[in-house]
Amino acid sequence: MAGGGDPGNQYFCTASRGLEQLLREELSLKLSASEVEPFSGKVFFTADADLKKLKSLKCAERLFLLVKKLPPIQVATHKGKGVHMLQKYVIGESSEWLNIVAKWKSLQDLNKEEERISDNTRTGIKRPAQQESGETRKRSKLELGESPVTDFNESPTGPHNTHSLIEECYQSKSPTQMPSSPDELLNSKGQGAASSMHFRVSCRCSGKIAKMITSQELGRAIGVALSRQMGWKAELRNPVLEVYVHISDVHYVVGIPIVRLPLARRDYIKSAGLRSTVAWAMAYLADIKAGSLVLDPMCGLGTILLEAAKEWPTAYYHGVDNTASQLQMASANVCFAKLTNSIDLMRASVTELPLLTESMNVVICDIPFGKKFKISQDMKTIMPYILKEMVRVLSIGGTLVLLLSQELSLLMQQWQKLKSHPNDKGNIAVWQNPDTTPKDTDPVEHIDVQPISVEKEQSDVKTQIFASLVPTGIFQVSLGVTEAAIHRYKKILIS
Ligand SMILES: C[S@@+](CC[C@H](N)C(=O)[O-])C[C@H]1O[C@@H](n2cnc3c(N)ncnc32)[C@H](O)[C@@H]1O
Questions:
Q1: CA atoms of 212 and 76, how far apart (whole Å)
Q2: Are residues 328 and 238 in the same domain?
Q3: Domain residues for 145?
Q4: By alpha-carbon position, which residue is closest to atom 12 of ligand 1?
Q5: Atom 18 (ligand 1) nearest CA
Q6: By alpha-carbon position, which residue is closest to atom 17 of ligand 1?
Q7: Which of 195, 224, 257 is the last residue of a domain?
Q8: Is 355 within the bounds of a domain?
Q9: 399 and 250 belong to one structural domain
Q10: Is the pLDDT of residue 148 over 70?
Q11: Is there a domain that residue 302 lies in?
Q12: Which amino acids bring their CB within 6 angstroms of ligand 1?
């Protein structure tokens, strides 16, 4: 474990599958982190950073102080013996826990003033449960574990995973006896004052171990043993300290979350749309520069624009959507995030954007898929027309970043392969003779594409599009229940 005067503390973040590499880059850029080790849904690192910097990470779901990362052991096949072995191995020495709790406390001290200030200003989010709107309730459910957003560790990979976080209470304890702050729990030397520590264990077993023991059983066993060893008291509802344990075939990881809420829950977003970490990743990949004009032509609640505008505040953002209700919520989000100076919203169709040709430096779009945003017409038919319009408004040298379903991702790759040579003069007319007339802004409720000779026209459109788009990366990402791909392209001038 890192100590004072060294590179800092050891941490780990959880990340959506596929975002580990981007998180790695973010850790290096923002925290100058060392010993960065991405591993299957987690990224381990060492950093000497203050809490504000740690909390500025946008690609991470949750952030933990690393208590220990242990190699797996051969566990006795007898269940009772096996549990005992695991319990002993995972908990280890009391001194380790006292050290880590002291580190955790010093981070909490740094956080104290900041939390006090933000609690006072966050009244819009922290409403009592009975006053919450359906939307907010839905979101809190997601954040509290019904979605992989708060998944403690890598997504389940096999039939023997236990999917949920299990929080076990080992003894009953009246909430009225809860300590009011971490200070109460620590003695004068800043060490864990054992007897008054209120804690809970969240345990997840996956892989072989999960065949033998459930997460609940192991969580309870570790909780009981930790309580005995450290003199800590179990508190399920409102613990001061949370201990997370993940036992898998590759390693046993124990951590303490540094902030209660997942980092992925942004305090500046009122109504959540696309997973915030994925939205941020798309913006990161778009190479947004000072003064860039950035468009999301199917912006929904505006998550991508919000994430981008918070991180790259010197660019200008435009959101387009054809659905009034989506735009209303996007507008409320923009106001809530205090980004009205940098984000404009308008109602239009992605196939008829009221924007000048080559007027945008960046186009970023989460192309609808899945049940919620199913477009009635076949995406295969519509996509070329969506792409054509996006590419029309994109400047030469500009970046296009798309979030696509797996199916559409494959289709786009096939179309890319079939593209004709860029010097084929027959394919460049559209891009060389751009129509610079702004398009009608009349509201459009759905995509209405009626090509005359569908096959021929589609094929021409695809050829035109992919002659001017150079692919610069495909990044597979997990959206929890679905898998998706981020495609990135650069628009080139066709000579
Ligand atoms: C997947 S959602 C975007 C979600 C968004 N990224 C967010 O975080 O909220 C797709 C959006 O495309 C919009 N949409 C569907 N057809 C459209 C069209 N023809 N023109 C513009 N927007 C359209 C839908 O109204 C929906 O808001």
A1: 10
A2: no
A3: 61-257
A4: 298
A5: 349
A6: 322
A7: 257
A8: yes
A9: no
A10: no
A11: yes
A12: 273-274, 298, 300-301, 303-304, 320-323, 326, 349-351, 366, 368, 373, 375, 447
CA distance 446 to 229: 63
How many domains is the chain built from? Answer: 2
Predicted local confidence at residue 451, as pLDDT: 45
- Distance of CA 212 from the midpoint of ligand 1 (Å): 45
Q: Of all atoms in ligand 1, which is nearest to the CA of residue 386? A: 19
95 within domain boundaries: yes
Query: For atom 5 of ligand 1, which residue has the closest CA?
Result: 300
Mean of per-residue pLDDT scores for the chain: 79
Shared domain for 317 and 236, answered yes or no, is no
> 165 C-alpha to center of ligand 1: Å?
32
Domain membership of residue 202 (yes or no) is yes
Q: pLDDT per residue over 152-171, tens digit each? A: 233 333 333 333 333 433 54
Given 257, 291, 309, the domain boundary residue is 257
Which contiguous run of DSSP H or E holds residue 484? Answer: strand 483-491
Q: Quick one: average pLDDT of 303-309? A: 98
Task: Indicate the SS3 state at residue 453.
Answer: coil
Predicted pLDDT at 424: 44
Ligand 1 atom with the shortest distance to the CA of 326:
27
The backbone region for 91, taken as left when phi is positive above 0, alpha when psi lies in -120 to 50, beta otherwise, is alpha
Q: Which of 304, 323, 343, 386 should be mutated for ligand 1, with most atoms under 8 A from CB?
A: 323
- If asked whether residues 69 and 198 sit together in one domain, one would say yes
pLDDT digits (tens, 9 = 90+) for 358-394: 999 999 999 998 655 555 567 778 899 999 999 999 9
- Vertex 488 angle, CA 56 and 385, to 5°: 125
* Torsion, CA 46, CA 51, CA 54, CA 55, rounded to 10: 160
Residue 249 and residue 382 in one domain: no
Q: Are residues 243 and 307 in the same domain?
A: no
Nearest atom within ligand 1 for CA of residue 446: 19
Distance, in Å, from the CA atom of 30 to the CA atom of 43, rounded to the nearest integer, reads 15
Q: Are residues 314 and 438 in the same domain?
A: yes
Domain co-membership, 67 together with 150:
yes
Please tell me the distance between residue 395's alpha carbon and the centre of ligand 1 in angstroms.
Answer: 22
Q: Which residues contact 237 (CB under 8 A, 6 or more apart)?
A: 175
Q: How far is the CA of 368 from the centre of ligand 1 (A)?
A: 6
Locate the ligand 1 atom nearest the alpha carbon of residue 297 and give its number: 21
Structure confidence at residue 237 as a pLDDT band (50, 70, 90): confident
CA angle 367, 372, 378 (to 5 degrees): 55
- Say which CATH number the domain at 361 has: 3.40.50.150
Q: What is the pTM of this model?
A: 0.78
Distance 261 CA to ligand 1 centre (A): 28
pLDDT of residue 236: 87
- Measured over the CA atoms of residue 197, residue 202, residue 208 and residue 213, the dihedral's sign is positive
